[in-house]
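$ ./design --mode recover --in tokens.txt
reading tokens...
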């Protein structure tokens, strides 16, 4: 129910975008109408298609909400918001060459958050919740996003013609490959994956070493770092590229050793062997090395 509800909400957001653009173009001079973007005949079909898509999504959402009201706030509303960002990003990327980077960024951002929820729903359903969208990731995450928007806005204001096509291309490669790597990690780990650090081993918890886990011990973290830096390359934000990379590395320098301390307690010699065979592959980040005390405790627990 949550999976179909997410797609319904997303459809509402995407479908309403051309109508919102047309409405805003009537009041805001620098926003073009849909007709001026794609042509008169295509705009009619686009508006019609958007209306049908939004209506179908809204009707299905109402049907679901009738059975479970919590779905509206936990699934439909956030999915519709993400869908609207995706639709707006697509519009900007196609229609406005001056702000195409911003449109690509919005597409990458919305795809990342929506696919986090969908991947969790498909392969890790028992951990699915509103938090799976990662929209409420952390205060620091929101602050970093606002700073990147401010850098983009200030740069566009003072240097409107500044553009680095190679950096944009690198951003596309980093953002797409990073997101795919993270989703591959979630797919491979399935029920063993968690957005939160697990401090107590569950009965079905298994050590995953196959697939992308042969490349990195923490492929989801590596993927997230590549994606986040890639989004700033998309925006041509030189300051935030450095800032995001530094902040991400600093974050994982604390998180990964902390997490690996629990993983060593869960899997003991098996994880220690895994540490020796597969690196983390995040610069300046090192894992936790088992202490003599931990090894003594392993003998008692065996």
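writing sequence...
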């Amino acid at each position: 129910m949550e999976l179909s509800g997410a797609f319904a909400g997303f459809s509402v957001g995407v479908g309403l975008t051309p109508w919102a653009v047309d409405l805003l173009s009537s009041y805001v001079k620098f926003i073009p109408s849909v007709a001026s973007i794609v042509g008169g005949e295509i705009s009619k079909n686009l508006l019609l298609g958007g209306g049908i898509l939004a209506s179908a999504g809204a009707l299905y959402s109402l049907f679901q909400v009738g059975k479970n009201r919590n779905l509206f706030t936990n699934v439909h509303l956030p999915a519709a918001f993400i869908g609207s960002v995706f639709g707006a990003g697509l519009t900007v990327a196609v229609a406005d060459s001056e702000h195409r980077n911003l449109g690509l960024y919005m597409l990458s951002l919305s795809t990342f958050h929506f696919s986090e929820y969908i991947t969790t729903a498909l392969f890790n359903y028992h951990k699915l919740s509103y938090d799976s969208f990662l929209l409420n990731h952390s205060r620091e995450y929101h602050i970093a996003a606002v700073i990147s928007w401010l850098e983009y806005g200030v740069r566009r204001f003072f240097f409107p013609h500044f553009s680095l096509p190679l950096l944009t291309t690198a951003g596309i490669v980093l953002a797409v490959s990073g997101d795919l790597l993270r989703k591959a990690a979630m797919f491979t780990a399935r029920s063993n994956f968690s957005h939160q650090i697990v401090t107590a081993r569950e009965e079905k918890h298994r050590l995953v070493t196959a697939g992308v886990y042969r490349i990195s011990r923490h492929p989801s973290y590596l993927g997230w770092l590549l994606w986040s830096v890639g989004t700033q390359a998309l925006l041509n934000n030189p300051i935030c590229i450095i800032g995001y990379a530094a902040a991400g590395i600093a974050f994982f320098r604390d998180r990964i050793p902390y997490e690996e301390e629990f993983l060593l307690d869960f899997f003991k010699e098996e994880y220690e062997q895994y540490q020796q065979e597969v690196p983390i592959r995040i610069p300046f980040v090192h894992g936790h090395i088992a202490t003599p005390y931990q090894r003594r405790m392993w003998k008692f627990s065996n």
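exit 0
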